[in-house]
Amino acid sequence: ERVLTAGRLETIDGVGIYSLANGPDRVVSLLLKRVVDIVGTAVGLAVLMPVMLVLAFVIKLGSKGPIFFRQERVGLHGRPFMLVKFRSMCADAEDQLADLRDDNLIHGHAFKLANDPRITRVGRFLRRSSLDELPQLWNVLRGQMSIVGPRPPLPSEVAKYDAWHRRRLSMKPGITGLWQVGARHSPEFDYWVEQDLDYIDSWSLWLDFKIIARTVPAVLTGTGR
After folding, report:
1. Which of 52, 122, 173, 219, CA to CA, is 20 to 30 A from 167?
2. pLDDT (tens digit, 9 = 90+) per residue, 51-99?
3. What is the H or E stretch that residue 138 is in?
4. Distances in Å between the alpha carbon of 124 and those of 52, 128, 147, 168?
């Protein structure tokens, strides 16, 4: 049960949402969060660029199709943007989606398969290691995402949201978050959202650093995927 002691009413995609004022409304801290995003992304791109170039070459050799996968996602306050990943699926993966809907493991407004037949051999490695996420550093640099934040949803998911789900759009989506380190294996969509709202309600720069620290072992052991 959430006790709302302070906050304000915001409009997200035409729906009135009550947002707490004890975290994301801290203008100075959010500015610092953006500075951390820019510096962290710039350093990350400089260090990881050789790795990304090798991955791009391997992806191109491994299967037909583009190196990058671009997909529309919903960002801060419902604004759409194009999320970029390394392609981990076959080129016609989106066309096959309708035939796989019945095998969805998630209870709620999201989609996930146990053994997705669309994933390529290289793609399995990329997903296990979370290396497919690296191009999202460009999304962070452009201000569309943050290093840490709620999971970036699809427009089709957002269209089915209950009113309380929409409050997760009151903060920029992230490459990692509480959902990545603690809820990724849960089949309950509502639990994913609860993790995102817990992050928003208790947000601080220190929390971001703790989540980043937890992401590293989660990725290395595969528990975050």
Report:
1. 219
2. 999 999 999 998 889 999 999 999 999 999 999 999 998 887 777 776 6
3. helix 136-141
4. 16, 6, 23, 29
